[in-house]
Amino acid sequence: MGPRAPRNPQGEETEAVEPRKNGQDRKVSDELAETMRQGWADTERHDLEAVPQAAHTGRRRAALSARFPGERLVIPAGTLKVRANDTYYPFRPGSDYVYLTADQSEDGVLVLEPEDGGGHEATLYLLPRSDRENGEFWLSARGELWDGRRNSLTENARLLGLATADIRGLADLLADATGPVRVLRGLDAGVEESLRDKVTAERDEEFRVFLSEMRLVKDDFEIADLRFACEATARGFEDVVRALDKAQATSERYIEGTFFLRARVEGNTVGYASICAAGPHATTIHWVRNDGAVRPGDLLLLDAGVETRNLYTADITRTLPVSGRFTPLQRTVYEAVLDAQQAGIDAVKPGASYRDFHEAAQRVLTERLVSWGLFEDLSVERVLELGLQRRWTMHGTGHMLGLDVHDCAAARVERYSAGTLEAGMVLTVEPGLYFQADDLTVPEEYRGIGVRIEDDLLVTEDGSETLSSALPRGADDVEAWMASLLS
Ligand code: GLY
Ligand code: MN
Ligand code: MN
After folding, report:
1. What per-residue confidence (pLDDT) applies to 67?
2. What is the pTM of this model?
């Protein structure tokens, strides 16, 4: 990357000071300052229309307003995180902020101000375009010359269907505010500091929980975006199959890079660190080091998702034979997981308990483990009662999916894991079997085999729709699909 100015995350620098580059201050002549002030075209855009989400974000804000009448509500986007010195991790705004605004700016803050007659007025506080007159444009660490053109506040108001204001006035406004306030914590320390004496942890937690629960049932825009995320992810999996020869010549990294390319080209990035686990690495549930060998005859467990430009992510796993054909034992384990997944999928419908699909899948896995003689003389019921199958099944069978891969994580237990499925929810169904390479309690030939199959389901009025159905699941179908891509 090129040399750059130090960044003040609060964007407060407006004075004509030369940014430090390579540790050295340099002088700015009056002549240079003068020439930098002038000769710039007016690029303000007057033709912008609201983004498609704007209708939805307005409705979502109205629901939030109705739940907290008379209270000031503050939802920050989050700030840049330092990687080292003046370099930063890629910015990803908080999901609740995105849900309520469709904006993705770092340091943005949505404020809902209670109105006298009821309801709230929403204002989005953002960093405006850089001033050229005072040199901010090129001398400030947040200057557009360094970071690129931002939308003006007016442009953003048009795009988002939302009033906008300069973020640099917000700290004072919040410090002076009276009346009840709630803030979404953990995103912007500066905003929290401004509100320190006005908020309580308990009320803010209630706010966080409500925001998370708002996102449990997806609207049409979200469902369409998740559908696209699954389709793009399926194309990324096809890319990986086509690149398996290169992965065998290098490592799991080639798989990670291949999928990442698809995610960047079709979406924003990956929705979480891709798990590219070949051979015994497939038994490590969160294998993201991705530095191992990819060998013919082994399985490759690929768990990856494209995050769209609107920041919704897919979360799909396929376990593929590297050389295109399952061995008989790999197929036996694979089909046990497949049957468990199908039992889980069949249990997904509105009105069902959230736990049903997990229990259905666990039962099938346990039946297979018992039939393979792994529990000596214990019955399926007894194994389930003691939870002994978990040595090889380990994790839950799914989770909500949306803007976050593990979506709605702050929802109360009674609305989520002890709750009831409703049409419009989107969740994963992802059973697995994992026989660690050093597990002396299973026959040697099982050791090092790991299989997970994960699909993304929309709960419909009468059952479910598999959004990730573009990718085959059956063992024969997987082999045929791989052959078609490799030929
Ligand atoms: N990749 C994370 C998960 O499947 O939940
Ligand atoms: Mn998952
Ligand atoms: Mn996954």
Report:
1. 98
2. 0.94
